[in-house]
């Protein structure tokens, strides 16, 4: 009886021990599976974090301040004298280091504003092949140069600023006599001549001849001889044609900040941060002709009779209309209030 119990007891014990092993075994296996799962989850998280980090680095790369090695854009600003061109070019000089582009001055011999055709060819070749200076902004007092004519595969982006023709002429007239705040000690061509613009018009002298206003049309028209013939209708049409099809943007001096604002949105490689910079340094940038007097109503009426004034004003208003349209389409009157 006792033995039987033992026998039976032994079997129960053996069964219990085996059951225990099975339970423990299953438990350990279960734990391993759990561990494996959490390891996989951890690995996935790490991978996600690494990816996010890589994206962050890539983004910083494109927003960074290093030279834009992949950008070979060429911008040409063929500036017209006395249109606030110095103020605008100084903004470019201030930003070029930060934004990683080059600013190059194109020194046209004499004050001719046109280049002989071999010089144009050399210029086109040099500008398009000089990779060390890309991206680059060129500025100079030179008429529009048509890169297509020279078989160039790269077209530059053209920019310009126009000013009300009579304002520009009056500004130039006093600039030659009294200089400006930019280089106050430089003696100008007509230094010492105290004649006002009104007197000049009354005496019909050459410095205030309306023919002198024939400048913005030829700058946009280009190097054809007709471009430089005061009153030539083809020149006006060609200037409008180039403005519409060959210039990225033509602004007006009276809205310099708006011009810079559109450029910042359109060409960020060059003009990122330009508006903020211009606003904070406006005083030092604006170049003012000394002792400038507003012309009398009589003088204005006299000038307005001339064909050159009418044609130059037509181009100016054409440019202004285009510029207003560009601004409207951008929905930005942000800087006009
Ligand atoms: C441009 O060239 C003329 C003559 O070649 C020279 O006298 C003048 O100093 C130059 N101007 C600049 C800003 O380099
Ligand atoms: C362009 O002209 C400059 C100055 O004359 C010169 O230093 C440069 O090497 C030229 N670049 C090319 C590609 O011809
Ligand atoms: C000139 O004309 C404007 C309007 O065209 C007028 O407001 C202004 O008073 C005039 N100035 C003089 C000095 O007559």
UniProtKB/TrEMBL annotation:
Instruction: Tell me which UniProt keywords the record has, alphabetically.
Output: Disulfide bond, Glycoprotein, Golgi apparatus, Membrane, Signal-anchor, Transferase, Transmembrane, Transmembrane helix
According to the record, the segments passing through the membrane are 12-30
Q: Which PANTHER family match?
A: HEPARAN SULFATE 2-O-SULFOTRANSFERASE, HEPARAN SULFATE 2-O-SULFOTRANSFERASE 1
Is this entry keyworded Iron?
no
Q: What is its main location?
A: Golgi
Q: Which Pfam families match?
A: Sulfotransfer_2
- Intracellular or extracellular location(s): Golgi apparatus membrane
Q: Can you quote a single GO CC term?
A: Golgi membrane
Query: What protein name is recorded for this chain?
Result: Heparan sulfate 2-O-sulfotransferase 1
The membrane topology term of the UniProt record is:
Single-pass type II membrane protein
- Which protein family is named in the record? Belongs to the sulfotransferase 3 family.
InterPro entries for this protein: Heparan_SO4_2-O-STrfase, P-loop_NTPase, Sulfotransferase
Tell whether GTP-binding is among the UniProt keywords: no
- Write down the species: Apolygus lucorum (Small green plant bug)
Oligomeric state and partners? Homotrimer.
Q: Which GO terms describe its biological process?
A: heparan sulfate proteoglycan biosynthetic process
Q: Which GO terms describe its molecular function?
A: heparan sulfate 2-sulfotransferase activity
